[in-house]
Design brief:
The protein is α/β, with parallel strands linked by helices. Helix content is 40%, strand content 14%. It has 2 domains: 8-146 and 180-203, Rossmann fold (3-Layer(aba) Sandwich), CATH 3.40.50.720; 148-178 and 208-272 and 287-300, NAD(P)-binding Rossmann-like Domain (Rossmann fold), CATH 3.40.50. It has 11 helices and 11 strands. The strands form 3 sheets. A 7-stranded parallel sheet has the order 3-2-1-4-5-6-10, with helices on both faces. The protein is globular, with a radius of gyration of 19 Å. InterPro entries: NAD(P)-bd_dom_sf, NmrA-like, NmrA-like_oxidored.
Length: 313
């Protein structure tokens, strides 16, 4: 179908950064967006054009209400890494989609997933969600992103980057990574929702080029107009810092990906997809330096007023 034909889309995860980017793009293209949230109205992010339903992904009736009257769905699972809970969420989504007659459901796995089994909860819970949805018979497209540039516009990256020219991240410098923005994810999601012949396919989205840490720092330097060097951040230190923001269980789940990458078990897991998503989904991420140049990095300067990390979201 054409992306210009209006859809009614159930967006799971629209109050997060990734689902929010998809919801904004869909609403901006005049599609009807519905989402489920446990947040009070005052705590919800601004999503013009989206309709909020109070509810919980763990309650089947709430998810069924979300899908009522919708034609399509986009799903990003929350940052939960307990297999039992993720399976309940996936089964609730599958049941609601079948009942609503969903024409196509796009699952954002939130990460690449290795070919073989691992002991990393961040990978295996997403593999579980994919399997539940695929086995349900719902017309499914899976997109697996690498790493988001937006992760680097954060209170744990911004100050050292702006003040010291240091880009620190918990990936080995030699790891070739196809960095994407949340906007790139949204464009890929829209294509996966609307293009013909997508059902049943899985895309390791990422464009046609990947960068080492040094190459990423050089691109940041061009965008900022200053010298930038890459510094490998210890995944354990990253996890400790993340735990202060998200709690120890969620931090351990997220950091599991970086511990795995640091092990060298699959050094090309986050690399480019040889141009497949560019060819099939018409995904053409902007050069990193262009993304960098568009961000208001000055909010992280120690010379600026107290930064508000939500101001750009």
């Amino acid at each position: 179908m054409s992306s210009e034909i209006p859809m009614r889309v159930a967006v799971v995860g629209a109050t997060g950064f990734q689902g929010g980017a998809v919801a904004r793009l869909l609403a901006g293209r005049r599609h009807r967006v519905r989402t489920l949230t446990r947040r009070a109205a005052a705590d919800r992010p601004p999503l013009p054009g989206a309709f909020f339903l109070a509810g919980d992904l763990g309650r089947r009736d709430d998810v069924r209400r979300l899908f009522e009257g919708t034609t399509h769905a986009f799903v990003t699972m929350p940052l939960v890494y307990e297999s039992e809970r993720v399976e309940v969420y996936a089964r609730n989504v599958a049941a609601a989609a079948r009942e609503a007659g969903t024409e196509r459901l796009v699952l954002n796995a939130n990460t690449r997933v290795p070919l073989g089994p691992t002991e990393v909860a961040a990978f295996e819970t997403r593999r579980l969600a994919e399997r539940v949805l695929r086995d349900s018979g719902v017309p499914l497209v899976v997109i697996r992103p690498p790493v988001y540039l937006d992760n680097l516009f954060s209170p744990w990256n911004g100050p050292s980057l702006v003040d010291e020219g240091v880009l620190a991240y918990p990936l080995p410098e030699s790891t070739r990574t196809a960095w994407l923005s949340h906007r790139d994810l949204a464009e890929a999601a829209l294509a996966a929702l609307t293009l013909e012949g997508m059902e049943g396919r899985t895309f390791d989205i990422g464009g046609a080029r990947s960068l080492t840490g040094g190459e990423l720092a050089a691109a940041f330097g061009r965008g900022l107009g200053r010298a930038v060097r890459y510094e490998e951040l210890d995944p354990a230190a990253f996890e400790r810092g993340l735990a202060r923001l998200l709690g120890p269980e969620t931090a351990a789940g997220v950091a599991g990906i970086y511990h795995y990458m640091a092990s060298g078990a699959d050094p090309l897991l986050m690399a480019d997809d040889d141009g497949v998503s560019t060819e099939v989904l018409a995904l053409e991420p902007a050069p990193v330096e262009e993304w960098v140049a568009r961000q208001p990095w000055q909010i992280w300067s120690t010379d600026a007023d107290e930064p508000d990390p939500t101001s750009r979201r």
